[in-house]
Amino acid sequence: MANLARLGAGTTGAHTAAGLGLSILALACITHFLVANLLFLKARPHVSPVAWANAIGVSVLAISLAALALRPALLATSFAQAMGPSPGRYVLGCAVLGFGSSWLGAVLWNRANARLPAAVAGQCIVFWPVSGLIFAFIVQRRLPGLMEIAGIALVFAGIVWGLRAFAVRPAPPAV
Q: What is the value of pTM for the model shown?
C-alpha cells in the first residue's frame, strides 16, 4: 500500500475497490501456484526444474494465443490498437518481459525449490512483497522513507530468524 492514495488520484472508490479485490485474487492465485509448484517439484525429484518451467511456459503461450485470437470478440479495441504506434517495440517488450521476468524467474524459482527444504523455500516467498514495494518506489520515482526502510528491514530480519530456526545444529557431544 505504498502511497496508494497518490497513485490512485482521480479514480473512483469503486474503481479502487475493484483493483484491490483483483490484486487480492491475484495474490491468492500466485500463492496457490507457488505452493502447488513447490509440492509438485518435491514429489517428483526426477522432473527437471527447467523442463517444468518450459512446460508451464508452453501452456501459458497456448492460453495467451487463444486469448489473442478471442480478443476482437471480447474487447472493443483491436490487437493493433492495443499495440499502439510502435508494434515492433511492443512485441520486443513482450518478448523481453516474457523471457526475463516470466521464464527466467520461473526457472530460477524452480531450481531454488528443488534445492531448498520446503520450509526454507516457504520463507523465501516473503521476498515477493518486498519486490512489490520496490516496484511501487520505482513507479513513484522515490526512495523509501525511514518507516518503510524499517518495515523492509523487519521483513528481512524475520526471514533470517525463520531460516535460523531451520539451520542444522551440530549434535551435542557424547557424554
A: 0.65
